[in-house]
User: Fold these one by one.
Assistant:
Number 1:
Amino acid sequence: MTVTLKPVDAVLVGFGWTGAIMGQQLCDEGLSVVALERGPWRDTAADFATGFAQDELRYMWRHHLFQNVSYDTLTIRNNTSQQALPMRHLGSFLLGTGVGSGGVHWNGQIWRFLPSDFLTKSHNQQRYGRNAVTDYDLTVQDWGVTYDELEPHYDTFDKLCGTSGKAGNLRGQIQPGGNPFEGPRSNEYPTPAMAQTYAPTLFGQAAASLGRHPFPHPTGNLSQPYVNPLGAQLGECTYCGFCEKFGCGNYSKASPQTTVLPYLMAKPNFTLKTECEVLKVELTADRKRATGVTYVDSAGQEYFQPAEMVILSAYILQNVRLLLLSGIGEPYDPSTGKGQVGRNYAYQTMSSVNVFFDDKILNPFIGAGALATVIDDFNGDNFDHSGLGFIGGAYVAGMVTGGRPIEMIYTPQGTPAWGLEWKHAAARNYLRSFSISVHGSCMSHRGNYLDLDPTYRDTFGRPMLRMTFDFTDNEHKMSDYLTDRAAEVAKAMNPREIKLNRRTGSWSVVPYQTTHNTGGAIMGDNPGNSVVNKYLQVWGVPNVFSMGAGAFPQNAGYNPTGTVAALTYHAAAAIKSQYLKAPGALVQA
Amino acid sequence: MGRFAPPLLGLAAAASLGLATWAADQGPALPSLPAHPLGAVTPAGLLAEIIPDGAQNAEQLRRGQALTIAGDCMSCHIRDGGQPFAGGLGLNTPFGVIYSANITPDANTGIGAWTNEQFYRAMHEGVGAHGENLYPAFPYPWFSRASRADDEAIFAYLKTLPAVKYVPPANHLPFPLNIRFMVKGWNLLFFRPHDVQADAGQSAEWNHGAEIVSGLGHCGGCHTPLNFFGAAKSDQALQGGDVDNWVAPNLTANARTGLGAWSVDDISEYLRTGRNARASAGGSMAEVVSYSTSLMSDQDRRAIAVYLKSQTASPDRAPGTPDPGAMRRGGAIYSDACASCHLENGVGQPRFFPPLGHDAMLQQADPTGLEHLILAGGRVGPTATRPSPLIMPSFAWKLTDDEVADVSTFIRNSWGNQAAPVDASKVRTLRRRLGLQATHYTANSGDQG
Amino acid sequence: MAGTAGAAVAAARHDGMLGGPPQTFTGAVPWQEGAADAPPGVSGTDFIFFTSAERAFIEAAVDRLIPPDPVGPGAVEAGVPFFLDHQLAGQFGQGQHYFLAGPWSKGTPQQGYQSRFSPAQLYRAAIPAIEKYVAATFNGAAFSKLAAADQDKVLKGLESGAINLDGGVDSATFFAMLLQNTREGYLSDPIYGGNKDMAAWKMIGFPGAHYDYKEWVTRHGERVPYPPVGFKGRPGWTER
């Protein structure tokens, strides 16, 4: 028996970064807002305190903070000729759950995409010709929003997080020490860049010696204490080396908990309900409006929450699945190219180079999620791609997120995975090695998409999401080229030896790569090429907004969170200034 | 029931009136978003609601609101998950558990049917509506300093608040204390209704501070030690007391354990935000800051600070010398378990994680407050300007009684601190009282617990 | 979908492993004194999962995966078999974070773990299947009685998947899990029963659960002096 609840102005489906930001923005407008989160409440002192947060086994390998796939997972395959099978264990990406979700166990790497990244199709076509964007069956397109439109919202997120960094382009003026390739910033970072440990410092020196332009990674692991515009306080990072996959114990990593919740939770017009899984967005009979959402709580009770606005603020895979389960939009069919929901799923193309010294103690355990010196010389269209046979690029980072020993003992090329030889290599190299990360873009492709699985169902009886994905030749060529660039820097550091970990073969769900899944509910300038408009408003169902990286038409060579947050603020601004005055389509189809 | 537009929460609070009202007052209507009025209001939000000029007896209500804030009525008259002023909070007194009353205007379960005279007698003489004696957990010995006009203002204000139908639980007191009549004898011995007399030799600010601190603010209710009968020792005013397994620190000018090193600005900032460069408000003080001092005017806070800074330093006692072994072990524990926030050299991150050197709280003769904090953790009182609770985690599961004692001894005797060593048996007692367990793992792990 | 979804979630979540009761939060960031999601370390010193035959195999196998020598402890010395025993007896062994429902299919290597077994079931099925293979190949001997070189040969055959095992066990899948779990036991916090005396951390130079390295960030190339510490301390916490 479904219980119908009192109506609210807005319901948030999922309560991570985008839910928290949207909740704060809408509550400040006086709307009554209910957030439904499928996982538990979580906060610093009780759930990832300094006394036990640095637990590699529990958090990284036993997935204590991650989505429990035993009752809900997705199915995966590389192409349509294969049978999709369930992802039975997390690997390639580590899905979040609970309050704060991935915002709790992210690294804190805060990037802006390049101005040209928002014009992937038109820019590359103009510079390299039509084939550059259609070769290999690529389906890249422009975003329908520009860097300049998002800049104020990137700035807002920086101020929320207290991002530590050094500007490279301040209102058009190139700044020494920053990233000279970045789009113009209206303001310097709120806090200075983090101090760099030995390995990133050596990386920066080597990169500079090759004529590259090293700069400190912008980070949500703060270099100094900070009070954000909401009054929320962040402490100073102590470089414990447990950010990614872990919660921060000393309030020094930007997260919904540290930046938004102290303010938002005190709002009388905000309510959070945990252990509540949204099953479906309910629509009117003409399917032109959502009436609310149906959810079930962990006690087994089903509810209908009527709402004037439905904000899909869950992870992209969940948002896309809810759209499909709710019958919103037309599912994408790769054989015809018709339909939009699920189209242009993309990922991130990761590779790395390990560097081994004999004479240098690097102390890899002194780390932070975004502690790195970076070069952006080969990202996006910062370099001439003529004759290279690919578009896109990567940042290359001498990065030390930490030295968690189960995950991060690097051994030289040819070392067996076990036995005395492995043990000796571990003992010899742990303190004297590190990894250069190559964080590559991933273009969208006709055959890469999300839909509902015909066979497998979750605990609730709903079809699982099915992911069909593989790296294309464009990505392999890009990754090889960029891995070689990383190797050049590695060699210039004069190490004993290096090891290249190239991105070879098909995408595999087994080794951890990165939790940067994108697309499937992409944005664009008309309903014929996208699911949402530039304000993340669903075409045809104007009171449903779909947040997150699902809106990316393809993925750039950066971590997505900065852009996800900027898009959220951009959407909130339009809701506040236009939608609330005249609820309806913000962009005419 | 009159409700007022709240100021601190900005537009958000307007939602408590429904969007239609907000739209009428503030600008164009929101055409298709119907109003979804909210039942809930936060305690601090309720106290911070602005009383509009148009309201009948607005002046009196504003005064009543300010006095209700100064008296910190909310901290005791709300229970976990309960409605503001509906009471039901169990107060652990040395004599047993006393539950706070419902002081909302509900006619049957609250004070809706009370008269001005009955309210005055409660505030002034500690006598309830039916002539019964109220337990002195209700701080009428301090409240009696308020004038009849003040009491009437508070009463008038309370009567504008949302009525809540709720009957608090019965008190758990051992015989003969469960007989309210016994309180009569207590009153004869210890209760002297205050005279309201200004000290002409002091500034108006000082006098205002005195009025709050010794009157409605009832600071001495916690910060003055109690005698065997639970009455304040008047000759040791504000020299520190214990309350509910915490220590309310010394507020005199004692340089080591009191406010000797604090400036008026330090005190004002602490009362406003719950934190300053020296300390953070935890334990019961967190609620005092959230529901009282952070909502006061700057003038009120400054007056309190000026008055407190004028208090004569309490006599200092020579602390004992710590055992070098305890200092060595405590230093090791500190480096591994505490430095994450307070940093290796104890400097902390001022206004975030308190610096530990020359710290008054840590050097109190009674280490209960420090032990409580280590065992159970503690939350800094969230305030409108600084909402982050910056919670210190509980270490009860991690540290044994011996380890808590050693690290406490180390902290109490490092970076300029000097205080008596801490005994593990005291930690054990407190742990038991707080109902917190240590966790013991396999001996293979080297767990010495 | 209505009623059935509710019933299903009630069953799934009330098994004590998935989430807690639904909660509503309003008005403030909630907090409770003494609240700590303390780590699920293990207690006692007895084995509770492995049979004696299984234990003999495990001890022999993990000591080949990480053998003892003067450079650092071997896996047995570090307590890895005890660690594995308690992991398999607990939530990990039961497959708490594995989706184990059917239908099952071998899939491609890229599709990862596709066994129908929980980790505990996989160990339980794999060990006798390996012993059966060993007995058939080495004149009835048990794995633990083989010469080290022969043990390594078997392990390599499992690693590559070249050895076919009975009982529906994929040898490479089992080997990958055994090696991963062995490293986990060797290098995780000692409260989980392995990494005895933090000897593996000492060997590589990892200070363990220390949290503040701020003073050491820019002291490039220097050795950090902190001795390894676990969640429940180190000898310096208690030495009289």
Number 2:
Amino acid sequence: MNIGGKRDFHEARWDEPILMEMGEKGQRAVLVDGIEPKVADCAGTQGAVPDGYARRRAPKLPEIGQMQLQRHYLRLSQETIGADINIDIGLGTCTMKYNPKVNEAFVRTPKFSELHPYQDPETVQGTLKILYDTQEYLKEISGMDSFSLNPSGGSQAIFSNISVIRAYHESRGEGKQRNEIITTILSHPGNAGAPSTLGYKVVTLYPDESGIPDIEALKAAVNEHTAGLLITNPEDTGIYNEKIREFVDIVHSVGGLCVYDQANLNGLMGITRARDAGFDLCHYNLHKTFASPHGSQGPAAGAQGCTKELAKFLPVPTVEFDGTQYYLNYNLPDSIGKIRKFLGVPAVVVRAYAYIRSLGADGLKQVSELAILNNNYLLKKLEAVRGMSMPLAKGKRRLEQARLSWEGLHKDTGVTTDDIDRRIVDYGFQSYFSSHHPRIVPEPFTPEACETYSREDIDEYAAALNAISEEAYADPEIVKTAPHNAALATRMDEDALEDISQFACTWRAYQKKCVKK
Amino acid sequence: MSTHFVHPYMPNSVPAVEQSMLREVGVSSVEEIYKSVIPDSLLFKGKMNIPQPITSESALKKHVMGLLNQNTSTDDAISFLGAGCYKRYVPAICDEITNRSEFLTAYCGDTYSDHGKMQAIFEYCSMMAELLDVDVVSYPTYDAGQAVSSSFRMALRVKEGRDEILIPASMSPEIRSQAEAYCQGFGKLVPVHAPNGLMDVAELGKKLSNKTAAVYIENPSYLGAFEPHAKEIMDLAHSVDAIGIVMAEPSSLGVAEAPANYGADITCGDIQSLGIHMQYGSGCGGYIAMQDNPALVNELPTYLYGIAKSEKDGQFGWGRALYYRCSHASREKAKEYFGTESGLWAIAAGVYLAAMGPQGMKELGERIMAYAGYAISKLAAIPGVKVNASNAKVFQEFMVDFSGSGMTVKEINKKLLKYGIFGGVDLSVSFPEYGQCALYCVNDTTCAEDIDKLCDALKAILGGAAR
């Protein structure tokens, strides 16, 4: 079927009321198991709320029947464009690849879902083997010596990496002196936010015209205060930084450590490795490259890798094997401690394990190769789109993603990337990722055509962008006033979101602040 | 040379398709693309030592299920484990909604694509707000540890110049470790004596000063007991103009008063017990809640999904509110970092709270407390065992002291395993001052038979020790 980029699409629009306003007093969606008479007779007085602390006023939770509740949420799900239901090429840097359905069976079986994190290791040998083996595979993929699976997201892995850097410098008596972290403006904002949270001064490098961070700026930035460099490569631009080894050497020359933010590794598996570029630490978002679903923003996992010199600082517990049994090691005196309760998010690791096992070494490399091919194929298709360009590093190939610009179209038509971001929903796609802030590329847009998308998918996506461009030139109002066919029928009052006097994130607050009595 | 195979997750792995795409791109191989940008010295020339692929789905399922089937889960045993992760009956409707593809595979889409997701998360916040009796509830954080850590840092920012957070010495060791690292350089955690988990109010009074940024308690305490002086402790915090922070177990709030109503400025904790499977700890997600006090709200480091009117009468939209607070917007100038946390669990917890309703939450709390009471009564009758020595009121957990039995908790738990029982969490490592104590936990599916079996097993095990 050739649909030329335009489906006759309309997202479900249910006009669904707020759940707090639904149902009637006394209705129940589920009943609680009763108390056995022998228990009631023998319960004593100690299982009780202390005097004065019994709940005085029952919480005003909904009271609704099960069918009505199920229907409400099913309707809300229909008003959500998950990666499973659209061609999610637009959310670049997020690696919206297919999440294999069989992997869901592994986390839904009670053999996993009903495990308590403090069970005796003897009763969870299967899960511990999965965690341990996954660490071993990630060591192969990165060239690193050790992995921790504790961080429960990419940004938390960044935080954990900086915590290790801090512990390393403190162990050498340089903790106070080394109070600066260097990162780049096109690395994920967590690379600036997390060091700042830990009290570091953040130095940010900007790209030069070649699209990679200015190496002269790095040379000027490093000194005896440098604790470390946090850098992504390729950055959001998809441009590979061919000087990466020099970056690492420059930072090492002043005693700093280097962290490769490989949250998105999708173009590099089996092609180039963090350790081989000299990095001391790295991390992988297992919910991106390793195919665990993103779950409406988590739960996620950030696998943290490091050299053997830094392994003693990793968060606890570590998963280890004594030749017979897998076990958890909490006895690491130099560890940065806990980064997340228990062992992070093993559910994401189990899915990543199954994904790796389904591909093997060659398959993982094939993933990256096809991700690169898909992206370059998409970029080829987009060359023809009027008003779109690919700034920085003219003529240089991108790897798995690219930062594009609608600057030309904006100048010609007044239509912005944010307008197109809303309009693309009318075509049946998830809204896209423009850029983190600040937007150093004007009117940005960042696609990533992962390897799980077919050629037809990519053709359809490119055709949609082309169609929107044509609309912008012919009838810009249709784009500026979009969306028209989304769940939300019209534009919302976006300005209200930044006004604290109108701010409400709960229904009761909205009733108090914004509803005129 | 790598061997290509046609993989179900990669439609363009069909050689003819790949070749045709390469032609369109104008290269002869993908290698040509990446070799044009990656220096030869950085190209990986070896082969990763990863097992051969399990190519069929059926074989993959057999392999992974084979590993998982080696586990003994809390469904296969009688479990008395708690300590921050709680087994609960998860209503089928929670799984049905949480596993919906649309929610499971959505990500950071926003107002115009994911209207339903944002409404679901707003409704979660709205229901948590009713449970906690406050007006502002955050987007879910990574876990309770992150919620507590951020609450501490919020207090340290609001009370600039003060650097002490007073905590009960019985604080959850996991969360304390997280919070200490998170506050390093900005403030320190100062423990206050808390025998059996209950804060020594007199000592708290002495430790309060103009350096106190916040006073923190857990209610119920990590060691199980409800804090009977919670209001007094919050009042004491306020007497030195410090912030009162309470970590509350949300599943207790159908029966126990919301902390905001006894003076908590910030309530925080974990939502895992609200309709989320434990999943070996994966089910954790945090909440931070407060009244609508702009000074504190402005310090929240994570998303807030704000509601606003749309142009269509009666229809609302949602978007990221007060976004300047967040590191995605302001990088190093943000309040703290944040990232992909636990959005799906907000949806799960929302379904749970709506399914339970006020009556369900009340009955849940009553049932759990009744079984805790029953377990205390029964265990107390076993010679050599002291149960809930402080006689404090408990919710779902309580201390069992085996010091008089001549056996260690570790030994006892190993023996209990043979009876198909997971004994309580061993406290002798984290809290050696209590001797051989274990933290036992009942859940909402524990039945009298489970507790009776535990007692019989303990009698047999400890009787053996006495001989």
